[in-house]
Design brief:
Layout (H helix, E strand, L loop, with lengths): L8 H16 L8 H11 L3 E8 L7 E4 L8 H7 L17 E2 L6 H6 L1 H7 L6 E7 L5 E9 L8 H25 L6 H11 L4 H8 L3 H15 L4 H12 L1
Antiparallel strand pairs: 1-2, 1-5, 3-4, 4-5
Helix pairs in contact: 1-2, 1-6, 3-5, 7-9, 7-10, 8-9, 9-10
């Protein structure tokens, strides 16, 4: 079982700076790039990011990262996903930051399908994730990676991220409450957020893995609850309600 080590005063100061940055941000995403950049500096990773998505095969509703991480070959990723110890299906049971090396030795990693087909293709040698609490079937998490010339994440890295977890989770929930129009369900809020991005009903259905007809039903409910008749008016009314 991973354990939390004693942190140095400098680590605590840097963690507090992350919390302050995240709490002061009120953007279109739960955590904007400056927050991820502060975490990157704190942990000392090569790449870092935050994402939210349904699993196992949903597209990210929110995604921000420090560098272009490239795209995965979908066939290779699908074939190797079951061998990935940090896949999002594991997120409900994770209450601390977790590392790829928590599950596999160096020898086992070299034989691992995910490492062979995905990680090495993107020059990733070490992975670490910090998942936040989320509704069933949804992952909310920060990821960190280092290259072949770096060292693995250590217990100091795990500890500082684990200490941050409840504070980041509280900030994430506050961000959602600020945007919650009165009477809308969680799914209706997701649909409304994607309408704000300009997506069509079919695109929203693809993103949320639901039928276009279900999207229309959600949209009708949103119109009725907000007493509006257009998508633009729904977004405007929701924004004014959360201001």
């Amino acid at each position: 079982m991973p354990h939390v080590t004693t942190l140095r005063p400098r680590d605590i100061d840097c963690a507090l700076a992350v919390v302050a940055e995240a709490a002061a941000t009120d953007g279109a995403q739960p955590f904007e790039l400056p927050v991820v950049e502060r975490l990157l500096e704190l942990v000392g990773a090569e790449r870092a990011g935050y994402y939210e998505c349904p699993y196992p095969d949903g597209r990210a509703a929110f995604s921000v990262h420090t560098t272009d991480i490239g795209s995965w070959d979908p066939d290779v990723a699908a074939a190797a996903r079951g061998s990935w110890p940090l896949r999002d299906e594991c997120s409900p049971s994770a209450t601390t930051a977790v590392k790829f090396s928590d599950f596999l030795s160096r020898t086992e990693q070299r034989r691992n399908l995910w490492y062979q087909g995905v990680m090495r293709a993107h020059s990733v040698q070490y992975e670490c994730k910090l998942w936040l609490p989320a509704p069933s079937g949804v992952a909310r998490g920060f990821f960190f990676s280092r290259g072949p010339r770096d060292r693995d994440f250590d217990e100091r890295d795990r500890s500082v991220l684990t200490v941050l977890r409840p504070h980041l989770a509280a900030i994430r929930e506050r961000w959602e409450r600020r945007r919650r129009a009165p009477g809308l369900t969680g799914r209706e809020l997701e649909v409304l957020g994607l309408i704000r991005e300009g997506l069509t009903n079919r695109e929203i259905g693809d993103r949320l893995v639901i039928a276009p007809g279900t999207v229309r039903t959600h949209l009708e409910n949103i119109f009725e609850k907000l007493d509006v008749h257009t998508r633009t008016a729904a977004v405007a009314r929701a924004c004014s309600a959360s201001a």
